[in-house]
Design brief:
The chain is α/β, with parallel strands linked by helices. It folds into two domains: 2-246 and 463-483, 3-Layer(aba) Sandwich (Rossmann fold), CATH 3.40.50.2000; 270-455, Rossmann fold. The chain is built from 22 helices and 20 strands. The chain has a nine-stranded mixed beta sheet. The longest helix has 23 residues, at 461-483. Bound molecules: adenosine-5'-diphosphate. Adenosine-5'-diphosphate binds next to helix 1, strand 16 and helix 17.
């Protein structure tokens, strides 16, 4: 059972939604029985068929929850939790730049409802897979031996960290409202930054912890990217592993993508030129022969410092001076949105900006751009560079986390590689990588080889889903061993195994 706060097509703010959905479908394709539970937010647009009601008690408070059934792919059963008082509002996690103040309750309910559903099923799930801080109370509640969850004693839990920057930190008092204040050891284990962190709980109490690339799994053991949770992660030793995200190769396929004006493939890139024209048109940029020949640099990104927006701010005027056109799509911090908008106003023929969340435009940029920019300060995995590789759109990335794991740096000597990579987090290093990439763009043969190398790679979920299955099997074995009273390995003193 996947417990997650967002999943395509029901709700999405970022890569988590793509991953939870595609991983579930890939696991089902491998023959596993997969269900997924998420809130029925306003943005889910009335998804699902009514499938009953239940009373879910969080702490002492009973919530009436409507259950709505839907599916993903052919076989994944989805349950959307309808609780208008908590979910029928603007924004998944917050609105107007502020988090919803009742997020502990909103996501406490998600977890408790999922576990109640799991406990009520004929064969309880062998694995409860919690994603990010929003579901991280799953391992905690499973371990805490809460009344009503006795039937889940044999279920193992896996915690996946999609981004350690978001830790779900709340005042200590929230544990009382969640019925966890009295659970032995919980308050102490979750204590973090003058409050409690849900994610810290998921890390400590789960039977296995994963994150979304091997590189990021190593990086978060250090102080810089560990963000105060590095010691908790180091405590888990070999229970922590990194599994690269895949991409949904049906949704992101230039040969069938309905958002592109014409299909294309590695063997026939003609349609990519049509996509380039379409992107330029949709941004109101010139589409004459010179504009179609000039390199087009795309960026689709949350506009937050993580994504390297501060570097771009530093060199915005230099960027506009390059012999390249830029198209940008994103939402986020007002100062970065304003920066790009100012730049587009000053350079109406060279810079196009669209502030907003727009799936169609994201596909079009992946299809039509020549280069794709991801100068991230850190990147747990990153999906856009994987889409870019598949669309013959050469990524220019910083060597961090999943970007370093997935983009092979172009080597001028051997002419091998799939993209352009810089290491130092500085505007100068970014600018140098961009200049190199633009110079190589002028060499059509070299460029075609880079495109072909990226397009030939397989980033489908099949391989990664099999890696998750291995983690699940190890987690199940550790719970069984614990239940037998032998070699219990679990997390922070799981009461299940006692
Ligand atoms: P993160 O999850 O940190 O935002 P990822 O690269 O893992 O970054 O995933 C981002 C996902 O969200 C991609 O599927 C990307 O296309 C999509 N995305 C981000 N911003 C937008 C936007 N403004 N419009 C459409 N899609 C977007």
């Amino acid at each position: 059972m996947m417990v997650v706060s967002e999943a395509v097509p029901f709700a999405k703010t970022g890569g988590l939604a793509d991953v939870s959905s595609a991983l579930s479908v890939a696991l089902a394709t491998l023959g596993h029985d997969v269900s997924l539970v998420l809130p029925r937010y306003r943005e889910a647009g009335g998804a699902g068929e009514p499938a009953g009601r239940m009373t879910v008690t969080v702490g002492q408070v009973p919530y009436e929850v409507g259950l709505y059934a839907a599916s993903l792919g052919r076989d994944v059963r989805v349950t959307l939790l309808d609780c208008p008082a908590l979910y029928d509002r603007e924004g998944l996690y917050g609105a107007d730049g502020r988090d919803h103040p009742d997020n502990p309750t909103r996501f406490g309910l998600l977890v408790r409802a999922a576990l109640d559903l799991a406990a009520a099923t004929e064969g309880p799930p062998s694995i409860v897979h919690a994603h990010d801080w929003q579901a991280a109370l799953g391992p905690v509640m499973l371990s805490a031996g809460l009344p009503g969850l006795e039937r889940l004693r044999g279920s193992a839990s896996v915690q996946t960290i999609h981004n350690l920057a978001y830790q779900g930190v709340f005042p200590l008092g929230c544990l009382g409202a969640l019925g966890l204040a009295e659970a032995p050891g919980v308050a102490c284990t979750l204590t973090h930054k003058a409050g409690v962190s849900f994610l810290k709980g998921g890390i400590a109490y789960s039977d296995a912890v994963t994150t979304v690339s091997p590189g990021y799994a190593r990086e978060i053991l250090g102080a810089e990217l560990g963000r105060g949770l590095d010691a908790s992660l180091r405590d888990r030793g070999s229970d922590l592993s990194g599994i690269l995200n895949g991409i949904d190769v049906d949704v992101w396929d230039p040969a069938t993508d309905p958002y592109l004006p014409a299909p294309f493939s590695a063997g026939d890139l003609e349609g990519k030129r049509a996509a380039k024209r379409a992107v330029l048109e949709c941004y109101g940029l010139p589409t004459d022969e010179a504009a179609l020949t000039r390199p087009l640099v795309g960026m689709v990104s949350r506009m937050v410092p993580q994504k390297g927006l501060d570097l771009l701010a530093e060199i915005s005027d230099d960027l506009a001076g390059l012999d390249a056109t830029f198209v940008v799509l994103g939402t986020g911090m007002a100062e970065y949105q304003a920066l790009w908008q100012r730049l587009a106003e000053r350079h109406p023929a060279g810079v196009g900006v669209h502030v907003g969340f727009d799936e169609a435009r994201a596909h079009l940029i992946e299809g039509g751009a020549d280069l794709f920019l991801m100068p991230s300060r850190f990147e747990p995995c990153g999906l856009n560079q994987l889409y870019s590789l598949r669309y013959g759109t050469v990524p220019v990335v910083r060597a961090t986390g999943g970007l370093a794991d997935t983009v092979r740096a172009f080597d001028a000597e051997t002419e091998q590689g799939t993209g352009f990579v810089f290491t130092e987090y500085s505007a100068a290093a970014l600018m140098a990588a961009l200049r190199t990439a633009l110079a190589v763009f002028g060499d059509r043969d070299a460029w075609r080889r880079i495109q072909a190398a990226g397009m030939a790679e397989d980033h489908s979920w099949d391989v990664s889903a099999r890696e998750y299955v291995k983690v699940y099997r190890r987690a199940v074995a550790s719970v069984r061993n614990g239940a037998d009273g032998t070699a219990a390995q679990g997390g922070a003193g799981s009461t299940r195994s006692e």
